[in-house]
Design brief:
The complex is a heterodimer of chains A (about 725) and B (about 80). Chain A is α/β, with parallel strands linked by helices. Chain A contains 32 helices and ten strands. A seven-stranded mixed β-sheet of chain A has the order 2-3-4-1-5-6-8, sandwiched between helices. Chain A has a two-stranded antiparallel sheet with strand order 7-9. Chain B has helices spanning about 25-30, 65-70; strands at about 5, 15-20, 40-45, 50-55, 60-65, 70-75. The chains are: A alpha/beta (about 725), B alpha+beta (about 80).
């Protein structure tokens, strides 16, 4: 129990736990944000990446804990979200469920409400989007609806927070009235099913089969519905389970024979039948004549998802999104970089030269600063994505691209993670991997997550620019375009490969709502963006700190032996005493410093690893210096160019202004066009940076994150070797 | 006179006769409101003629042709 929970239990004021439930796009999260404002806490349900949001507030002296359940269409065990919602109700027994329904689509949204009635938990219905109902000239007889549903009904408009106060008061009142008593609604599902239910309920009740957790008739219903979760739990009591499964089997056979439908279909039909019979009793009244005008969404969709215009417009929108992200993001990124270099300068001044200074400045500040520098970019990117998601456009992108992506075992929703990761050169795989959350299907999500890091992210670009400038300066644009194209080809082909081997399986259905276009609320977008950005800061901050220190240590220790150090000191003294010209003297000293730096690097652990790897890496044309840079690039791809600088004895090299380094490489006898090509391919494909790997592990599992690291490196190396060997054999 | 949802042209209206899918797809289709008797209208198809987008119960739903195959409908006179 956490401290906060203890306080919660100790307090004497009346308490109520309210769970907010509803279909996706019902305005549930908007209402939750309107009620809790900033007093909310976001976490994950254990083991899965479904977000758990909680908020606390006081209403009329009652302490209210509000939980925002994931949006679901149903309470079956179809998706993680549905399972989470159901288990929450069963395990934590909230005092009341507030079911938010879109009042303009009552017949579909009440399907979830009926399932709450079946399980018996106290419910209050929030009729949301009442403004849209009025716009359509409709009126809903909420008294009659409340009477027929036998539960309170409150009208709300989530966007303005209208009705939220009344909703909470009614919910608290109802929670008190219903205190702890669950009364499952007995619906008739037709003669055959009812008979089976009766028989099974009797068995369940006499043998007390899981009745401590679930209502008896509900367990029977889930058996007939072939609910994998409940059936799996029932296997703990094999004798009773066998009886129930036998009845289930017989009923299924009978239904198939007589009605040509499985029991779950019949049950669903009766649920809809119940809803229709309620709605037919003049619940929805057409007050004003309905406008003949076609709805805004349908009209917009005529252009936005038009077979010819749609894709063109989509590319334009995505491209604009990138342009905005990077042009706007550059400014605060510059501030952050300046801020960190100021901190580094200050630390250099305050801490006396030596190991500690080196650790703090080169290890910690540079390492963490490098990662934190991405925060503005990621925040802006998320702002855009939140906008596209909340407005309803993202679902259309998935709709338009699904057919193409399906060829490769992916899903319509795979497009966004690819694009964010750098599908249009210059993204970042960390938010890209995080964006795979919108993929509800685990197999496609995994395939997307494993292949998204192939994309040319912003940190890989300086490496490409450096090598292109050195060897292919006359084909700049063509080279960049080809690299992006190659990344897509590899991502799609590898996705196809893993989907037909390690994560084989049927594609998950693409049965998806295209939500009406809505102007997102500012608050919703900002909360959304802040949550994701903060998660990035937390993850990056902890992991990168540790890795930066490790990497610094590997490039620092062991230091040069005293004898060599003395040698450099001697050289310096000679330079000072023999060269009179100030400028020349400084240049000579800098050259000595650089040579010392290079010698120290070669002597260090990282240098030794680089040297040890040389016999193998030679196959792709990489020498020990390239190896160090590539090993360092595993921490962050930005490190590749700066390590190159040190290794090629050029001292500090700014990755943005690397002309001197590129000319140096261009004239180095160890380099040719094919070494450069091999290196480009390798950097494009090899292990994702450590922050991405950690993010991948959080979104899937460490097993898959490590798989990606090893697999991508192997693939990258094989490609690099092939290019270098074939290229040098044929053309040199 | 019923036919598969795949065969209905864009802009046409129809009424669902049966949803023959079982398991996960069947459950999902029914969760989304595709039950017998429901009236639908085909809004259009994605650039490669798949998936299809339909209007029912006052909202828009998309599904792949392979999923539409499970649904048989009878055309409605406009």
């Amino acid at each position: 129990m956490t401290a906060a929970e203890k306080i919660w239990h100790m307090e004497k004021t009346p308490k109520a736990t309210i769970a907010l439930a509803g279909n996706p796009n019902s305005g549930k999260t908007t209402l939750f944000n309107a009620i809790t404002g900033s007093r909310q806490h976001v976490g994950n349900y254990p083991g899965i990446t479904v977000e758990r949001k909680e908020g606390t507030l006081i209403v009329n002296n009652t302490h209210v804990k509000l939980i925002d359940l994931p949006g679901t269409y149903s309470l079956s065990a179809y998706s993680d979200e549905e399972l989470v919602a159901r288990n929450f109700l069963i395990n934590e027994k909230p005092d009341i469920v507030v079911d938010i329904v879109d009042a303009t689509m009552l017949d579909r949204h009440l399907y979830l409400a009926v399932q709450f009635f079946e399980i018996g938990i106290p419910v209050v219905i929030a009729l949301n989007m009442m403004d849209d109902v009025k716009k359509q000239g409709l009126r809903i007889d909420k008294q009659k609806l409340a009477k027929l549903l036998n539960c309170p009904v409150v009208e709300t408009i989530a966007r303005c927070g209208c009705g939220k106060r009344e909703l909470l008061e009614v919910a608290i009142e109802q929670a008190k009235a219903k205190k702890e008593s669950w009364t499952p609604l007995k619906i008739s599902y037709g003669h055959d099913i009812d008979l089976a239910l009766e028989e099974m309920t009797a068995i369940i009740e006499t043998e007390q089969f899981m009745t401590d957790r679930y209502p008896a008739r509900w367990i029977a219903l889930k058996y007939l519905e072939n609910d994998s979760e409940i059936i799996a739990q029932g296997q703990k009591f094999p004798e009773t389970a066998a009886k129930l499964l036998e009845i289930t089997r017989k009923t299924r056979e009978h239904c198939q024979k007589t009605l040509k439908l499985p029991p779950e279909a019949i049950i669903a039909d009766y649920r809809y039948g119940l809803i229709n019979s309620i709605l037919k009793q003049n619940i929805i009244v057409q007050e004003k004549p309905r406008h003949k005008r076609i709805e805004m969404t349908t009209r917009l969709d005529r252009f936005l998802v038009n077979r010819y215009f749609g894709p063109v417009l989509m590319i334009a929108i995505l491209y604009a999104m990138f342009q905005i992200t990077f042009s706007v993001g550059e400014v605060p990124m510059g501030w952050l970089q300046d801020g960190f270099s100021w901190v580094a300068d200050t630390a250099t001044r305050l801490i006396p030269p030596g190991m500690l200074q080196s650790l703090v400045v080169s290890g910690i500040i540079d390492g963490v600063g490098g990662v934190m520098g991405f925060v503005p970019l990621i925040a802006i990117m998320f702002l855009m994505i939140s906008f596209l998601e909340d407005s309803g456009y993202m679902a259309r992108v998935a709709y338009m691209l699904d057919r193409v992506l399906r060829i490769f075992g992916l899903h319509g929703y795979s497009a966004m993670p690819f694009i964010i990761s750098g599908g249009i050169a210059g993204g970042c795989a960390v938010p890209g991997v995080m964006a795979t959350r919108t993929l509800r299907s685990p197999k496609e999500k995994l395939a997307t997550l494993l292949t998204a890091p192939f994309m040319p992210c912003g940190a890989k670009l300086p490496v490409f620019m450096l090598l292109i400038a050195a060897f292919f300066s006359e084909y700049r644009a063509q080279m960049m375009f080809s690299i992006t194209l190659i990344a897509w080809v590899f991502a799609l082909l590898v996705a196809k490969l893993v989907r037909s081997t390690v994560i084989r399986g049927e594609s998950t259905p693409f049965i998806m709502e295209l939500p009406p276009y809505r102007l997102p609320t500012l608050r919703g977008i900002f909360i959304h963006t802040w949550e994701r950005t903060w998660q990035y800061i937390k993850k990056a901050g902890t992991v990168i700190l540790a890795v930066s220190i490790l990497l610094w240590a590997a490039m620092t220790f062991p230091g040069l032996p005293q004898q060599q150090l003395n040698q450099f000191t001697l050289e310096r003294q000679t330079a000072v005493s023999t060269i009179d010209n100030r400028v020349e003297q400084a240049a000579a000293l800098a050259r000595i410093d650089n040579r010392e730096g290079q010698a120290a690097l070669r002597h260090s652990l990282a240098g030794r690893i680089g040297t040890v790897l040389e016999p193998v890496s030679r196959l792709a044309g990489f020498d020990w210096r390239t190896n160090i840079a590539l090993v360092g690039g595993f921490a962050a791809k930005e490190i590749i160019v700066s390590t190159f600088g040190t290794a090629y004895s050029l001292g500090d090299v700014d990755p943005e202004a690397a002309e001197t380094l590129s000319s140096r490489i261009a004239t180095d006898p160890g380099w040719n066009k094919f070494t450069a090509l091999a290196m480009i391919i390798f950097v494009l494909l090899y292990a994702p940076c450590i922050v991405t790997v950690v993010t991948m592990a959080k979104e899937s599992s460490w097993r898959w994150a490590i798989f990606a690291t090893v697999f991508n490196t192997t693939l990258g190396f094989m490609m690099a070797v092939a290019i270098y060997q074939i290229g040098t054999a044929l053309f040199l | 006179m019923s036919k598969s949802l795949r065969q209905v042209a864009s802009g046409e209206k129809a009424r669902i006769v049966s949803v023959a899918a079982e398991g996960e797809i069947g459950r999902r289709l029914r969760d989304m409101g595709l039950s017998p008797g429901t009236e639908i209208e085909i809004l259009g198809r994605a650039p490669l003629k798949d998936p299809v987008s339909i209007r029912l119960k006052n909202y828009t739903l998309t599904l792949r042709n392979s999923e539409a195959d499970y649904i048989s409908v009878e055309p409605l006179e406009v």
